[in-house]
């Protein structure tokens, strides 16, 4: 602990602390959790010379406002947004130095949904089961941010940060043109009508407003018809699993997904850039599934 | 045993019974501890499956597992925890009626059973316990409760469970346990982990 800290001035619609999550506890009913756009979290930490597992803030749509209680260096990645320090515009996707008392204002995401605010040294809230991630499904980890919360900052890594200038900061892919998700069929693709499965590859869905950290829900597409009735006994679920509830509309499981589920999984979207893009897709964005190798 | 590949790094192994799941789960943990399993991040048993997640080369692993001889799990295998219960649940009378016993005999039916945690889910630390003889299996309540108190001992279908925290639920509630089911600051965090055997004894009044 360095004594450095940031105070939440404006919490935003939903801002949580996220790191790489808590894998390895699924057998106890503990979701993996962690940053939804893992690529953006990794980039923010690299920009600041933090280790990959350092905790950052994940905002939802309308950013966050923070006041530095001591000098700190921050970086904002993920969904592009206006970044201001005490009213003055500063760089997005680059290290920004804050003086004690300076106010960082992370603006509305445009396009995309989730921006990441990392601090050099990482947010040092107490870990639970090895992770500082907020798990909204099971209520583990730090509470959702609210105004007045003081977030401690951990010790910084070695100085100077090497290679940060050379990092390429990507845009957010696929959010305007539509989201294209590679899907590897199985394990329960055989629970669906072959004609319905064939239609899945041609179908256009839309991102539903009911999407959250648990899953990207779809709407407006064709219903996947079941080839068999009956209930599937509850079974283990992986990140990126595409579960199909009785309404026939696919749900792509994101970081806070339940560890087991009782609806058949038609296929899996491999973790990586496509799943990161799913975390950035706004309600109404078109979604298609393409067959993954 | 039917292995199903799940995405690029997971394997779901489907079995015919809860007993086969328990046996394969125990075998997987034995081999993982002996360093024979290779890379695997999560071993997640469920009702009729075991999921292996974070695997390199799930197809090759499936072929290896298919050749294993998996011994059935002995009833005496696995750590045993004893959990005191007060039989004060709101569904006690209804459960006694469905079981065809007097209310005061419910504790005996439960106490005579050695349960085993088949799998966890629903909430951290919530274990699905198997072992209750089939004639005592119960359906869920027609209307779920919006809040089941923490510590409630409950039954539904082939399973028994204890709610680690207050949550909605449709299981039949027969009693209350004071045991701390889930404490992330404790090692182990979950009292009921898959494979653990559980005995419920009536708490002295």
Label this structure with key terms.
heterodimer, A: 293 residues, mainly beta, Cyclophilin, 2 domains, seven-stranded mixed barrel, elongated, B: 205 residues, alpha+beta, Gyrase A, domain 2, seven-stranded mixed β-sheet, 13 strands, hydrolase (chain B)
Task: Give the structure's gist in a few sentences.
Chain A is built from three helices and 20 strands. Chain A is mainly beta. Chain A folds into two domains: 5-166, no CATH class; 175-291, Cyclophilin (Beta Barrel), CATH 2.40.100.
The chain-level structural class of chain A is mainly beta
Helical amount of chain B:
10-25%
CATH topology heading of the largest domain in chain B: Cyclophilin
Strand order of the largest sheet of chain B: 7-6-13-5-12-9-10
GO molecular function, one term (chain A): hydrolase activity
Organism (chain A): Streptomyces vinaceus
Protein name (chain A): Biotin-dependent carboxyltransferase family protein
Keywords (chain A): ATP-binding, Hydrolase, Nucleotide-binding, Transferase
Describe the structure.
The complex is a heterodimer of chains A (293) and B (205). Chain A is mostly beta strands and 293 residues long. Chain A is built from 3 helices and 20 strands. Chain A has 2 domains: 162 residues, no CATH class; 117 residues, Cyclophilin-like (Cyclophilin), CATH 2.40.100. The radius of gyration of chain A is 20 Å and the shape is elongated. Chain A starts with a strand and ends with a strand. In chain B, the strands form 3 sheets. Chain B has a 7-stranded mixed beta sheet. Chain B is elongated and about 55 Å long. Classes of the chains: A mainly beta (293), B alpha+beta (205). At the A-B interface, strand 15 and strand 19 of A face strand 1, strand 3, strand 4, strand 6 and strand 7 of B. Chain B: This is Allophanate hydrolase subunit 1. Chain B: GO terms for molecular function: ATP binding; hydrolase activity. Chain B: Keywords: ATP-binding, Hydrolase, Nucleotide-binding.
């Amino acid at each position: 602990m360095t004594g450095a800290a940031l105070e939440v001035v404006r919490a935003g619609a939903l801002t949580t602390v996220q790191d790489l999550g808590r894998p390895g506890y699924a057998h106890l009913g503990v979701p993996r959790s962690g940053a939804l756009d893992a690529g953006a979290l990794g980039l923010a930490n690299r920009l600041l010379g933090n280790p990959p597992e350092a905790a950052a803030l994940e905002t939802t749509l309308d950013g966050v406002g923070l006041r530095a209680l001591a000098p700190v260096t921050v970086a904002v990645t993920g969904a592009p947004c206006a970044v201001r320090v005490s009213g003055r515009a500063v760089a997005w996707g680059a290290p920004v130095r804050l003086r004690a008392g300076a106010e960082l204002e992370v603006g509305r995401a445009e396009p995309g949904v989730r921006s990441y605010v990392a601090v050099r040294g990482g947010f040092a809230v107490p870990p639970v089961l090895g992770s500082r991630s907020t798990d909204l499904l099971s209520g583990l980890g730090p509470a959702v941010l609210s105004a007045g919360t003081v977030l401690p900052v951990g010790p910084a890594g070695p100085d100077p940060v090497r290679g940060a200038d050379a990092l390429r900061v990507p845009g957010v892919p696929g959010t305007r043109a539509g989201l294209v998700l590679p899907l590897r069929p199985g394990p329960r693709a055989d629970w669906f009508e072959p004609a319905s499965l064939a239609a899945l590859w041609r179908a256009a869905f839309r991102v539903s407003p009911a999407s959250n950290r648990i899953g990207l829900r779809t709407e407006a597409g064709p219903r996947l018809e079941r080839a068999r009735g009956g209930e599937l006994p509850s079974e283990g679920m992986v990140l990126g699993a595409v579960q199909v509830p009785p309404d026939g509309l696919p749900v792509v499981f994101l970081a806070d997904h339940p560890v087991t589920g009782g609806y058949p999984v038609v296929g899996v979207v491999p973790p990586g850039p496509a799943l990161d893009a799913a975390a950035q897709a706004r309600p109404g964005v078109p979604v298609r599934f393409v067959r993954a190798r | 045993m039917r292995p199903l590949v799940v995405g690029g790094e997971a394997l779901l192994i489907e079995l015919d019974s809860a007993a086969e799941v328990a046996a394969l789960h125990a075998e997987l943990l034995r081999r993982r501890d002996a360093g024979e399993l290779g890379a695997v991040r999560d071993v997640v048993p469920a009702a009729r499956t075991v999921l292996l997640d974070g695997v390199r080369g799930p197809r090759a692993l499936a072929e290896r597992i298919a050749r294993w001889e998996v011994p059935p799990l002995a009833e005496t295998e696995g750590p045993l925890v004893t959990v005191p219960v007060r039989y004060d649940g709101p569904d006690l009378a209804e459960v006694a009626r469905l079981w065809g016993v007097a209310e005061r005999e419910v504790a005996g039916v439960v106490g005579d059973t050695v349960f085993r945690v088949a799998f966890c889910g629903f909430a951290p630390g919530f274990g699905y316990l198997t072992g209750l003889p089939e004639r005592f299996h119960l359906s869920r309540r027609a209307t779920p409760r919006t809040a089941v108190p923490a510590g409630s001992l409950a039954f539904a279908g082939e399973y028994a469970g204890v709610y680690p925290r207050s949550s909605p639920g449709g299981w039949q509630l027969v009693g209350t346990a004071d045991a701390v089911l889930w404490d992330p600051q404790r090692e182990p965090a979950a009292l009921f982990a898959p494979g653990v055997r559980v005995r419920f004894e009536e708490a002295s009044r």
